[in-house]
Design a protein that fits this description.
Layout lengths: L3 H16 L13 E5 L4 H9 L3 E14 L6 E7 L5 E6 L2 E6 L5 E7 L2 E7 L5 H12 L5 E3 L2 E3 L6 E29 L2 H15 L4 E3 L5 E11 L9 E20 L6 E3 L5 E3 L9 E4 L1
């Protein structure tokens, strides 16, 4: 779930990329620059100003928040889909496993009118998965040899499949929040150069990618200089932006393993539209 700190940190990253487009190389202004989330400490600003260091603060404005929810709850965005690394090959009554294990996968066998499902773990191998089926179903004649699982003829096997378990993201609420991107510089020239670099870079950013996989809509609002009289080491420019973003909830969503199968005359199973052969029972292995 993205919250105000995730949005602020995304802005920090965007500002840092504007000042340090080459990463660890020198800044675009030539001055050492700190970019961070939160309001600076006055003493630190004075010390940094004396040392020629620029500060860029990203801070949420207290009087620029509004609710912008205008749609029903939407569960329509899948943000992660793990790679399937386990493989399964069916030949008659024998299922041969291959590849590697790994969390975020389900392995299933459709035998008779029952689907047998195993949630693959990070420590699983093809051999341990096969052994788990034999241990759970040994009483009905299921055996395992290495990476192969054999079902008795009394339990005709129609399909063996592996699917991923992804993550769906649902939008519960939407809000708009104002953020102050404030440059504190030791000279007016550094203030202007730093602010111009940030403003120019963010002008080309329409969406901020947030930590939960959602995005926030970035819009420019205003700009002002606010220098403190008599404080020669602090020259300030504030760029104000608004970000509209969603408050989300996530839940696991498994790929469908068995749906719409039909049994041919030789007993094999092929993909067909829904409604032909569906398991009436699901057993977790």
């Amino acid at each position: 779930m993205a919250d105000i700190s995730d949005v602020a940190n995304a802005l920090v990253s965007a500002c840092a990329a504007a000042i340090y487009p080459g990463g660890a190389s020198a800044s675009v202004t030539g001055a050492n620059t700190r970019v961070y989330y939160g309001w600076p400490v006055a003493e630190n600003l004075d010390n940094d100003g004396a040392a020629g260091i620029v500060n860029v603060s990203v801070f949420a404005s207290t009087n620029m928040t509004k609710l912008t929810t205008r749609y029903p709850i939407d569960w329509g965005a899948m943000v992660t889909v793990p790679t399937v690394t386990l493989t399964a090959t069916l030949s008659g009554q024998v299922i041969t496993l291959g590849g590697t294990g790994g969390a975020g996968q389900n392995f299933g066998i459709l035998a008779g009118n029952t689907a047998y499902i195993h949630s693959v773990t990070a420590s699983d191998t093809p051999g341990t998965v096969a052994a788990a089926f034999a241990a759970a179903l040994g009483a009905v004649g299921v055996t395992a040899s290495g990476d192969a699982i054999t079902f008795p003829a009394s339990l005709p096997v129609y399909a063996a499949r592996v699917g991923a378990v992804g993550q769906w993201l649902g939008e519960m609420r939407r809000q708009e929040q104002g953020f102050l991107v404030t440059v504190f510089a030791p000279t007016p020239a550094l203030r202007d150069a730093t602010a111009a670099a940030i403003d120019g870079a963010l002008a080309g950013v329409n969406w901020l990618t947030l930590a939960d996989g959602s995005s926030g809509r970035l819009l420019y609002h205003s700009s002002r200089s606010d220098d403190k009289p008599g404080v020669a080491t602090v020259w300030r420019r504030t760029l104000t932006y608004t970000v509209e973003y969603a408050t989300t909830q996530a839940f696991a969503a498994a790929q469908l393993l068995f749906m719409g199968l039909t049994v041919t005359a030789d007993g094999s199973a092929v993909n067909m539209p829904p409604g032909n052969l569906m398991p009436s029972t699901i057993i977790q292995i």
